[in-house]
Sequence to fold (97 residues):
Amino acid sequence: MIKVIIERVLAEDMESTYDNEIRKTLAAIMTAKGYISGASYTNVDNPNIRTIITDWDNVGCWNRWYKSQTRQDVNKAIHLMLKQDEKIKVLMSQSLS
Fold:
């Protein structure tokens, strides 16, 4: 399993518009092969910073979703609201034994 962390910095006064659009993205992602779960968070010190954390079966499933036309379509409006490019981290757990 992997985790994908996406950090987005919203332009001023775009919070409520973003919240409406992210619901569309989360609805679409639920149908993606290999998607396990996810949540969207707001930074308590700066509500313009949003973090999405999702769990995937593997990197291949994430990459398929990331490159998909569906993701591009549902994120088109979101990208217009961003102050800067989103930052994406893909993390894989390691055994601690």
Observations:
- Helices lie at 15-29, 59-67, 69-80.
- Strands lie at 2-9, 35-42, 49-56, 87-92.
- The chain has one domain: 2-86.
- The mean pLDDT is 94.
